[in-house]
Amino acid sequence: MKILKIVIIAIAVILGLLIVVGLFLPSTMSVEKSIVIETPANVPYSQITNLMNMPKWDPWSKLDTTMETVYEGPIAGVGAKRSWKSKDEQVGSGSMTITKDEPFSYIETDLDFGDQGIATSYYKFETAEKGKCKVTWGFNSEIDIPIFGGYLCLMMEPMIEKEYVKGLESLKKLSESIKNKLDVTSKNISIENVESQTVICMSTSTTPTDQNLADKMGKSYGQLVSNIQVNGMEMTGPPITVTTKWEENVYEFDNCIPIQNVKGDLSAKVFESKTYKGTAMKIEHLGSYANLNSSYDAILAYISQMGLEITQNPWEVYISDPSDTPEDKLITYIYFPIQ
């Protein structure tokens, strides 16, 4: 009986100590791991802001390649949501939603694990040196269980750290394997939902090296403006050029002007049309039209990095009037329809 009494007292003391210590243990769990990747920041960023790329590197996706996954919201950025359901207890069910997205520098997400609680995660992208970037993956959660919450944090932190290290190593391998790693971090690139516009257009066929291209475009726009003025139509936006064919020796395009309503009789070769409606990637080009190729290279590289598909013809929107804007201040938007 004496021994039993001693055992009971010892157990009571241990439990008491556990309770006292548990009361002072932090119930907030924070994990942060980093890795240096030998690419510009836009490459790993593109694998995260587009949540559909996550199964390529996310450690939990690799634990269960057959889990049910649903994507909602925009293709990428704020509002993009990924939900999953797995029979594997290590993966479970839940969702993540991007709540903050600063292109090429920071992404923050809300994590909802259902009965298992909620958390936030974040990704930081910093230039380490030329051609390299440092990616940091962080996690914050609070286990609101009196006394035992702190112990659970102590148990779970090493497990999460281990998976984060695996995930970052996988992200590094994936990013460095992407063929087109062009640095676009200095470019103003975004994904937008664009609305269709009514336009009147003229088609032109020439070559990519045509020295008189500017004159031909100017002539087309002059005829379109004449139609607008003669028929009393209202111009509703800046001029647009839609590329319809681009090959080594052939460049075909439609010069268009948005209008409110088509009125009167259009001249020969002038026709009414509708512009694209849907999701498109846009890049803002600043400077001479002669340097547009640099922006085309950047947007095409980024579309490839994001793993997206071009669905229709691209177009240019000439925001600035070249007759009263210095060449280095000209603003042109380039759009590519994507999915």
Q: According to CATH, what is the topology of the largest domain?
A: Alpha-D-Glucose-1,6-Bisphosphate, Chain A, domain 4
Q: What pattern of helices and strands is seen along the backbone?
A: HEHHEEEEEEHEEHEEEEHEE
Write out the strand line-up for the largest beta sheet, numbering strands in chain order. Answer: 8-13-15-14-10-11-9-12
Helix content: 25-40%
- Overall outline: elongated
Q: Provide mean pLDDT, rounded.
A: 88
Low-confidence stretches: 12-26
Q: What is Rg?
A: 28 Å
The first-to-last residue Cα distance is 76 Å
The CATH superfamily label of the largest domain reads: START domain
Q: Any idea of the CATH class of the largest domain?
A: Alpha Beta
What does this structure look like?
This protein folds into two domains: 26-177, START domain (Alpha-D-Glucose-1,6-Bisphosphate, Chain A, domain 4, 2-Layer Sandwich); 188-337, Multidrug-efflux Transporter 1 Regulator Bmrr, Chain A, CATH 3.20.80.10. Helix content is 29%, strand content 34%. It is built from six helices and 15 strands. The strands form two sheets. Strands 8-13-15-14-10-11-9-12 form an eight-stranded antiparallel beta sheet. The protein has a seven-stranded antiparallel beta sheet with strand order 1-7-6-5-4-3-2, covered by helices on one side. The termini are far apart.
Brief summary of the model shown:
The chain has 339 residues and is an alpha+beta fold.
List keywords for this structure.
339 residues, alpha+beta, Alpha-D-Glucose-1,6-Bisphosphate, Chain A, domain 4, Multidrug-efflux Transporter 1 Regulator Bmrr, Chain A, eight-stranded antiparallel sheet, seven-stranded antiparallel sheet, 15 strands, 29% helix, elongated
